[in-house]
Specification:
- The relative contact order is 0.14.
- An 8-stranded parallel beta barrel has the order 1-2-3-4-5-6-7-8, surrounded by 4 helices.
- 47% of the residues lie in helices and 15% in strands.
- Strand 4, helix 5 (125-135) and strand 5 (140-145) form a beta-alpha-beta unit.
- The protein is an alpha/beta fold.
- It has a single domain, classed as TIM Barrel (Alpha-Beta Barrel).
- The structure holds flavin-adenine dinucleotide (FAD).
- Flavin-adenine dinucleotide (FAD) is lined by residues 48-49, 51, 79, 81, 108-111, 124-126, 144, 150, 152-153, 159, 162, 165-166, 175, 177, 204.
- Residues 48-49, 51, 79, 81, 108-111, 124-126, 144, 150, 152-153, 159, 162, 165-166, 175, 177, 204 line the site of flavin-adenine dinucleotide.
Length: 298
């Protein structure tokens, strides 16, 4: 199914991001539990693509996306980065996705490693989008966007100008980089609209529930940390259980505010943490159901 159709009958969609687990972890435990979310089932699940961009990583993403569709009957989105991809590899990947009925692809450039020179066929996610649409129009394309500007771009204005190329080349649905300050998202959304970007934008939310995430994710994403969140870190940083609860509380409040501002979707970066996904879905399940029920149907 082309997941862009979801926006025709739902006001606010709910989706999850997972990553392929390490070699020795069983897929089934993770995905079974993820798909039994207590509060609300996910409208789709996106599967990331390993940063190295190797053939084996590609296979793994395709395998898990296909498993999600065939076994759990939930629509998958397969991420595909193009920094280490040539046209032939892109075509082979599309063939495999097609053979497995995976219709939705998140087109990405990927990060450029200082040790591996990028391949030359695709410079930007927008180039990959154009290639896929020319190859087979029926693929539905998603893309990434950055409320606080992509780290390699000189300004948010320029980044949004570049984002428009991605949309013009066939991307019809955006998911943001994680952020903690909703005002940054609202400002970005407004600027994107004014730049002629009218496709649905889902807000990427990652609950910070353990100390490792504070050190890694927060530093790597470059997302600004509002005073309220930084107080949570300093108050509960040495108390894992309290930090977990406080992280869920902060993310839930963030989501409530986004729903109140009529955001088109919430995309939860689960980090394959079943407990986190379950707690968030419990907290917002009834609210999303109410939002998606037409008023005259109540
Ligand atoms: P692009 O859209 O190509 O943008 C990269 C830079 O180039 C930006 O600074 C942009 O302003 C500029 N630019 C874009 N188009 C043009 C143009 N036509 N001309 C000139 N400049 C241009 N990484 C992974 O390795 N695997 C994943 O699964 C993965 N999933 C992600 C999911 C989401 C929702 C997000 C937000 C990021 C994800 N990433 C993933 C990280 C992503 O690969 C990096 O952020 C990467 O640095 C940029 O990818 P992009 O697709 O946004 O690139």
């Amino acid at each position: 199914m082309n997941i862009s159709n979801l926006f025709n009958h739902k006001k606010t969609i709910f989706s999850l991001e997972i990553f392929p687990p390490k070699k020795d972890t069983s897929y089934n435990t993770i995905y079974n539990t993820l798909l039994k979310l207590r509060g609300i089932p996910a409208d789709f699940i996106s599967v990331t693509y390993g940063a190295g961009g190797s053939q084996a990583q590609r296979e793994k993403t395709i395998e898990i996306a296909s498993l999600i569709l065939a076994t759990y009957h939930t629509e998958p989105v397969a991420h595909l980065t193009c920094v280490n991809l040539d046209r032939q590899e892109a075509q082979d990947t599309l063939e495999k996705l097609k053979a497995n009925q995976v219709q939705n692809i998140m087109v990405l450039r990927g990060d450029i490693s200082p040790d591996v020179p990028p391949k030359e066929d695709f410079r930007h996610a927008s180039d990959l989008a154009a290639f896929i649409k020319q190859y087979d129009e029926s693929f539905n394309l998603l893309g990434a966007c950055y409320p606080e500007c992509h780290y390699q771009c000189e300004s948010l204005e320029k980044d949004i100008e570049n984002l428009k190329i991605k949309i013009d080349n066939g991307v019809g649905h955006l998911i943001t980089q994680l952020f903690f300050d909703n005002d940054k998202f609202y400002k970005f959304w407004d600027m994107a609209e004014r730049a002629g970007i009218h496709v649905p934008i889902e807000a990427g939310i990652m609950p910070i529930t353990n100390i490792r995430q504070i050190e890694r994710t927060v530093a790597l994403s470059g997302a600004s940390v509002p005073a309220k969140l930084s107080r949570i870190f300093s108050r509960y940083g040495d108390n894992p259980k309290a930090l977990f609860d406080a992280g869920i509380y902060y993310a839930t409040e963030q989501i409530m505010d986004l729903i109140d501002h009529d955001v088109r979707g919430i995309h939860l970066y689960t980090m394959n943490n079943v407990e986190t996904a379950g707690r968030i879905s419990d907290a917002i399940g009834n609210i999303l159901e109410a939002e998606n029920t037409p008023k005259n149907a109540e």
